[in-house]
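Title: [Solved] Sugar transferase 3D structure

Original question kept below for reference.
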Amino acid sequence: MATTSEPGTSARSAGAGSTAAVRRPSWGSLRRARRNRSQLATLLLATDAVCVLAVVLLLGHGDPAVVVFSVAALVVHAFAGLYRPRMDLSILDDLPLLAGAGIASVGVASIADGALGIGDVERSTLLVALAQTVLILCARAVVYVLRVRYRTAGRIAMRTLVVGCGGLGAQIVEHLQSGEQGLLPVGFIDDDPRLSAGERPLPVLGGIADLERLVTEQAADIVVIAYSNVPEMVVVDVLRSCQGLPVEIFTVPRFWQVTNTHRFVQSVRGVPLVQLRRPAFRAVTWPLKRVMDVAASALGLVVAMPVLLVCAALVRHEVGPGPLFRQERVGLDGRTFPLLKLRTMRPDASSDVRWNAQENVGPVGGWLRRLSLDELPQLWNVLRGEMSLVGPRPERPHFVEQFTLDYDDYLWRHRVPVGVTGWAQVHGLRGDTSISERARFDNHYVENWSLWLDVKILLRTVGQVLSAAGR
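Solution (posted by the thread starter after getting help):
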C-alpha cells in the first residue's frame, strides 16, 4: 500500500473532507452569474451575426456558398475563442484571429462545394468574405470603445475579492479600481496580511477559511488569488470547496514576471491572471455525460445479456448460489449506494474490511477479473444514475474513511459521479496499487473533465480488456 502523507497534512485533509461534498449552486444563482459574465459574449455574437447577415443580404444574391461560408464563420469564431468574456478589449488582438477564421471558413465552403455540391466558391465569395471580415472588425471596434466607457463609468462592475493582502494584491486592486477591466474590488482575504491597516487600499474581510462565506455575503462574481502567507495546499482545499459557487477564479501564476502571455490569459496592467477551469458539473456539455451514460449502459446491458448469463452460470458452479452480490460503496458527494458485481470469491464476512482480498478467488473468478467481466452488472448502476461509465472507482466506506485520513486529496475524488472505469485504472492503477497515485489521477480527471476525455478513457479500457490487462 502507498506511503501515507507527511505529518500534519492528514488533519487538513480530514477537515477538507467535510467540504468535499461540494454544494451545488441553485439554477437561479447560476443563471444570474452566467448573465453577468456572458453579456460581452452575447453582444459580440450578436454583432458578428448582424454583420454577416447584412453582407449576405447585400452581396450574397442567394449564393449557397456564401451562406455556407457565413455560417461557418460564426462557428469558427466560437472555436477560436472570439466570444469568450475577457478583461482586455483590443481589436488588434482580434485581427489575426478574424483573418484566420475568414480563411478557414472559405476552406469549409470549398469542402462543402466539393463534397456536397453546395454552391460554387468563386471570386464573389472571396469578396463577400473580405467584406464580412472588414465589417466585423469595424463593428467590434465600436463595441469595445463603448464597453470600456461603460466600465470606467461604473455601469459594468463585477464584484471582486482579492486573496492576498500584500504588495502584489494592493497593486492589482489599484489597477482594478480604474474600472477598465470591469471589475470592482470590494476587499482582501488573508490570514496574515503583509500590509498594515494604513497601507491597505481596501479592508481585510476575513481569512482564507472564510472565502466561501464571503463570496456569498459580498455577492462576489470574481476571486483573484494573489500571493499570501497561507500554504498553497490550504488554498487549494478552500478553492475546491468553493467550486459549487457561481464565481470565476483567477490566479496570478508563479514567476508571473517571466510568464508568457497569450490570448487565453487575462492581464491587469501587465500582471497575468490565469482563469481556473469551471467545475465539471458547471460545464455546458456536462448534461451530455448523463445522456451518454444512459444510452451506452442500456445498449450494453442488452448486448451483454448472453455473456452475463453464461458468466453467472459459471460463477454459480464455482462458488454456489447467488452469483450476483451487492456491496455498499461511496459515490458522488460521499453518498453510499449498493454496487453490483458478479461474485468472484466465496462468501467471507471479513471481506468488507480487508483490502484487495484474493485468497478465495477460484479459476473462474480469476478469469472474470482479468477480463473485467465481473464489473458488467455495474451497467445497471449506471442506468440507475448511481454511477457513470467513467469516473473515479468507488470504494467501500471503511476504506474511504481510512484513506481520507491518510492521504491528501483523497475525498476530493467524490466531486463527480464514480465510474465503471476511470483515468487511474487506464494508467494501471488497479488492485493493490498506490492510493495516493489513484487520488492524484482521479483529481486530475475531475479538474480536466471533458466528453472527449471520457471517450478516450472508454477506448483505452476496451483495449485493456481485449488484452486481458485487468486485475
